[in-house]
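Box 3.1. Reading complex inputs
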Amino acid sequence: GENVEQHPSTLSVQEGDSAVIKCTYSDSASNYFPWYKQELGKRPQLIIDIRSNVGEKKDQRIAVTLNKTAKHFSLHITETQPEDSAVYFCAASILGNQFYFGTGTSLTVIP
Amino acid sequence: DAGITQSPRHKVTETGTPVTLRCHQTENHRYMYWYRQDPGHGLRLIHYSYGVKDTDKGEVSDGYSVSRSKTEDFLLTLESATSSQTSVYFCATQDGPGQRYEQYFGPGTRLTVT
């Protein structure tokens, strides 16, 4: 099956700086890549996703980039704020079928 | 968020006892999923359903069974709970692959097996 690796496992940034989280996947057939944010004790919430027919997608301060050749995708958060502190998960899927998740990145934004 | 609920939200049980977790959705989504979340492992798929009475195994299905008798309810059963099944369990729903790909999660159930 698919194997998704996520790095780093922990990340600390100063408020206002940018944060980047990277994921790689193994199955070249994967074509849907969502990112979830999970605050402590809460459910994972979808924050952005990208399909393989585009290379980049933005939504205000967050963006996702996809490199199909290298089989990796990244989450970019600009102008970080304390409320961005959470665990972020990437996932890969073929046509929305079975999701394979990364192991998560704990992001801390230091005020 | 209000469209997906899980019950119970917390449960402590003893090794060897059966446990059933319930997921209820009002989204009329066709697909439903059960995941477990453990430190260092992210979210791992246990079982999923692609319609009433239609279910299939995920990557960590051993020791678990599921049932779906109605579109809105998906039950996860641990036939004989073990300590290794101590985890946080999340249900998710999806309109359906090939349509809308997004999965939406319930609030989770924290299960402790002593």
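In summary: The mean pLDDT of chain A is 95.
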